[in-house]
């Protein structure tokens, strides 16, 4: 039986689990692949650092460059831009296929890496980069390649879903829920990437590129994280039958006859009856709409060492099979060229919360501003707060679809009204 040399870069949450599977399941993997997968080394920063795993210490090396030079397959699980990018290019230059979970790097500079891999005739596989264990990239790229995808909407960040879900279900504090997510190995090395939506934005760019056969990178994604979502927003949403989720959305919009793709990440109100509303904890789900298939949903563990290692190993086995059987490996170059739509042109529904003085004419004045900007109101809820002799009211409007530009102008005009104490929240709404 042929032997394929496998080099592993990084031995953290995911890398240590990949190493465990390669060593413990070697026989199964060989019979599925038709080749022995020999783990030749694991590049680490400090071979003597204390670790939770009992991996053989003789596999550890600090010479990552040399390690990749002798490999058939390089698994990159260091994360970050450098030295991951240089090492991947080095591996490709030496004829190795690369498997990675590094969505940040792919969303920043995937085009260069794909081009180099295609030119070298090697594979660059990255199922782990989006929604962890969930098989989502291969279904979009292969299973749906005979259909036309119109929209992809996903909960693709486990950390933020864990936080929002804990705040919604137990009233947990933001900071406590984030600390739990870090302890459980879901969060990025710098959890700002999770909380501010950057991790979901990288995944959104990757999903959009595959769904719309065009290269989208991070610069094409508008991004808002969950740091400004308050316990009051979550309670008000719950009261009105909604849940707040951080969604990555990629959709084709008509844009007055000049179709474009909007890729965006933002906290989103979803009706509690929507399939994505039932995604709890660190679980992920991706909701896909295609012209012929209709609605599809892919659900599972989107983060964590072992689940992510499962996706990495799927790519390793499929790459190894191809190396055993022969045939082309590359071909990631996108075939389409749909333009990315500027955020101002995106149309969606909104929920707007206002704190107002409870007096006659307030509602009419606010409604007038909506009308003047062509934003149509779908529903309105009012809650009265009596405070001694004065009383104020909280108004929550949900609008029909309107453009970001019209919404921004509406909110500015509302802020200018004397009777408005504050605009308490502006959240986008999906699934209504
Ligand atoms: N943890 C998760 O749930 C998921 C992680 N990913 C991605 O997988 C990759 C790895 O993630 P984790 O294992 O969670 O990260 P981690 O931070 O636990 O592990 C990364 C490891 O690489 C090592 N490393 C970094 N630079 C190095 C260098 N120059 N030389 C040698 N070792 C180096 C670090 O010391 C660390 O042990 C990242 O790209 C991440 O975005 C993808 C999906 C899910
Ligand atoms: N930090 C990420 C890990 C997976 O990509 C998350 O929380 O989902
Ligand atoms: Na995946």
Detailed description of the structure:
The structure is a single chain. By secondary structure, the chain is of the alpha/beta class. It folds into three domains: 150 residues, NAD(P)-binding Rossmann-like Domain (Rossmann fold, 3-Layer(aba) Sandwich); 166 residues, Dihydrodipicolinate Reductase, domain 2; 84 residues, ACT domain (Alpha-Beta Plaits). Helices cover 36% and strands 28% of the residues. The strands form two sheets. Strands 7, 8, 9, 10, 11, 12, 13, 14, 15, 16 and 17 form an eleven-stranded mixed β-sheet that branches. The protein has a six-stranded parallel β-sheet with strand order 3-2-1-4-5-6, with helices on both faces. A hairpin with a 6-residue loop joins strand 9 and strand 10. The protein is elongated, with a radius of gyration of 24 Å. The mean pLDDT is 94. InterPro entries: ACT-like_dom_sf, ACT_dom, Asp/hSer_DH_NAD-bd, HDH, HDH_cat, HDH_CS, NAD(P)-bd_dom_sf. Pathway: Amino-acid biosynthesis; L-methionine biosynthesis via de novo pathway; L-homoserine from L-aspartate: step 3/3; Amino-acid biosynthesis; L-threonine biosynthesis; L-threonine from L-aspartate: step 3/5. Keywords: Amino-acid biosynthesis, Methionine biosynthesis, NADP, Oxidoreductase, Sodium, Threonine biosynthesis. It catalyses: L-homoserine + NAD(+) = L-aspartate 4-semialdehyde + NADH + H(+); L-homoserine + NADP(+) = L-aspartate 4-semialdehyde + NADPH + H(+). Catalyzes the conversion of L-aspartate-beta-semialdehyde (L-Asa) to L-homoserine (L-Hse), the third step in the biosynthesis of threonine and methionine from aspartate.
């Amino acid at each position: 039986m042929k032997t394929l040399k496998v080099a592993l870069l990084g031995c953290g949450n995911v890398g240590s689990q990949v190493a465990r599977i390669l060593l413990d399941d070697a026989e199964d993997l060989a019979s599925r692949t038709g080749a022995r997968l020999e783990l030749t080394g694991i590049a680490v920063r400090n071979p003597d650092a204390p670790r939770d795993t009992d991996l053989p210490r003789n596999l550890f090396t600090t010479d990552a460059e040399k390690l990749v030079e002798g490999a058939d397959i390089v698994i990159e699980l260091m994360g970050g831009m450098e030295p991951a990018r240089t090492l991947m290019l080095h591996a490709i230059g030496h004829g190795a296929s690369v498997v990675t979970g590094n969505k940040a790097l792919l969303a920043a500079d995937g085009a260069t890496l794909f081009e180099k891999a295609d030119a070298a005739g090697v594979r660059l596989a990255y199922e782990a980069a989006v929604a962890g264990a969930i098989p989502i990239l291969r279904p979009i790229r292969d299973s749906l390649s005979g259909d036309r995808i119109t929209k992809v909407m996903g909960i693709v960040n486990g950390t933020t879903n864990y936080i929002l879900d804990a705040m919604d279900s137990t009233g947990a504090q933001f900071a406590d829920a984030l600390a739990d997510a870090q302890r459980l190995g879901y969060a990025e090395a710098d959890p700002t990437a999770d909380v501010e939506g950057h991790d979901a934005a990288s995944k959104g760019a990757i999903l959009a590129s595959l769904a719309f056969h065009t290269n989208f990178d991070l610069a094409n994604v508008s991004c808002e994280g969950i740091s400004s979502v308050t316990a009051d927003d979550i309670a008000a949403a719950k009261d009105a039958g909604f849940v707040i989720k951080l969604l990555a959305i990629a959709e084709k919009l008509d844009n007055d006859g000049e179709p474009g793709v909007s890729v965006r990440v933002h906290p989103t109100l979803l009706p509690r009856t929507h399939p994505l509303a039932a995604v709890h904890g660190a679980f992920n789900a991706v909701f896909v709409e295609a012209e012929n298939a209709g609605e599809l949903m892919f659900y599972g563990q989107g983060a964590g060492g072992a689940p992510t290692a499962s996706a990495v190993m799927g790519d390793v086995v499929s790459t190894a099979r191809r190396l055993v059987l022969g045939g082309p490996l590359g071909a990631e170059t996108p075939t389409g060229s749909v333009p990315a739509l500027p955020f101002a042109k995106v149309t969606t529904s909104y929920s707007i919360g206002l704190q107002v003085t409870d007096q006659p004419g307030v509602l009419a004045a606010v409604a007038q501003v909506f009308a003047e900007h062509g934003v149509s109101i779908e529903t309105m809820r009012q809650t009265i707060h009596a405070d001694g002799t004065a009383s104020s009211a909280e108004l929550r409007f949900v609008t029909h679809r309107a453009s970001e530009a019209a919404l921004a102008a509406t909110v500015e005009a509302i802020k200018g009204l004397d009777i408005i104490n504050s605009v308490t929240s502006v959240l986008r709404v999906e699934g209504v």
